[in-house]
Design brief:
Layout lengths: L2 H22 L9 E8 L5 E8 L3 H13 L1 H11 L7 E6 L2 H28 L1
Parallel strand pairs: 2-3
Antiparallel strand pairs: 1-2
Helix pairs in contact: 1-3
Length: 126
């Protein structure tokens, strides 16, 4: 299958699932600070690996994944009704912590820069 078509379908699935998380799911376990970062649809369109980023502690992340897993059938039905495909891809939810890792790395870089600035000031004071 054409990569362009796969990318378009992935983006449509991402849009639909994001909209469902904000408006359609009534599960209280799903955190309101949940973001779909990426969707990868397999070449046969049977599965959609959905990367989910949740802002919160470990318990909130686990609860959000449990809530999404329990709503998997509803999400698949909504994908099939909103996107015209022969088969509705089965959603597979994966926790994506890349945003948090990026924030952590930024903080480390800032700390190193502060330390180097202090070192530079001490060097010039001598």
């Amino acid at each position: 299958m054409n990569n362009k078509r796969l990318n378009r379908i992935s983006e449509e699935v991402k849009r639909v699932v994001s909209e469902l998380i904000y408006n359609g799911l009534k599960d209280p376990r799903v955190n309101s600070m949940t973001t779909i970062t990426k969707v990868e649809v397999t070449r046969d369109l049977r599965y959609a690996k959905i990367y989910v980023s949740v802002f919160g502690n470990k318990e909130e992340k686990e609860n959000t994944l449990l809530g999404l897993e329990s709503a998997k059938g509803f999400i698949r039905k909504e994908i099939s009704s909103r996107i015209d495909l022969r088969y509705a891809p089965e959603p597979i939810f994966v926790l994506d912590e890349s945003i948090e890792q990026g924030i952590y790395m930024s903080k480390l870089i800032e700390e190193v820069n502060k330390d180097s600035n202090v070192y530079e000031e001490e060097k010039y004071d001598e």
